[in-house]
């Protein structure tokens, strides 16, 4: 796998992971009962984005390592997938 391909795959995994991590630990103003005038009641009290970016990077690195190992050691092949689904 080339470096450019690896970076592109890591970026895609990171981006998908970010959307999975964003809702972690979010408390809205409505849940907390502390409303700021002029804001939506569903707005988060503290977004803690830096912590979420760290978690996203760690999780994405682990997932990427698994995907890279599957690719490098040819643990999953197109022929194996076709055979699994009875297409061969």
**Care to count the β-strands?**
0
> What would you call the structural class?
mainly alpha
Main sheet record: none
Mean pLDDT: 91
Q: Provide the domain count.
A: 1
Enumerate the spans where pLDDT stays under 50 for 5 or more consecutive residues.
Answer: none
The global form is elongated
How many whole angstroms does the radius of gyration measure? 20 Å
Helicity range: 55-70%
Strand coverage percent? under 5%
Distance between the termini: 27 Å
What does this protein structure show overall?
61% of the residues lie in helices and 0% in strands. Helix 1 crosses helix 3. It is mainly alpha-helical and 88 residues long. The protein has one domain (3-84). 3% of the residues are buried. The mean pLDDT is 91. The protein is elongated. The protein starts with a helix and ends with a helix.
Question: What's the gist of this structure?
Answer:
This protein has 88 residues and is an all-alpha fold. The chain has helices at 3-21, 29-32, 49-72, 78-84. It is elongated, with a radius of gyration of 20 Å.
């Amino acid at each position: 796998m080339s470096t450019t391909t690896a970076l592109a795959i890591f970026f895609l995994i990171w981006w998908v992971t970010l959307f999975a991590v964003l809702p972690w630990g979010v408390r809205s103003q409505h849940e907390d009962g502390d409303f700021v005038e002029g804001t939506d009641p569903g707005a988060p009290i503290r977004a803690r984005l830096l912590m979420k970016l760290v978690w996203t990077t760690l999780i994405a690195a682990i997932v990427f390592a698994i995907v890279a190992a599957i690719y490098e050691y040819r643990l999953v092949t197109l022929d194996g997938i076709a055979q699994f689904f009875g297409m061969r």
